[in-house]
Amino acid sequence: MLHYLVATNHYKESDMLEIKAKYSKMPTYSVDAVFKDEPNVTYNYTLYDGKEWFQLGPSDGEIEGNQDKYKHIDTKRLQGTE
Q1: What is the pLDDT of residues 52-63, one digit of tens each?
Q2: For residues 31 and 36, what is the distance between their CA atoms, to the nearest angstrom?
Q3: What are the extents of the domains in the chain?
């Protein structure tokens, strides 16, 4: 996950406050990422088809109408909402 954020999304490792992997029923594996400049927001990612990271959270409902509130929404996600 850190590699994805650094290599694909051009963040620095020093931008991250916390990255925590979880195992659950759905999605089976997910990662919560918290950025230093936005410590009260948790961005949730999952590995889609075992090939590509996909951002799940914050939810689309939270983002809609509040895009300025969230600094680290994945650009792939925004393309789907325009």
Answers
A1: 888 887 877 777
A2: 16
A3: 2-81
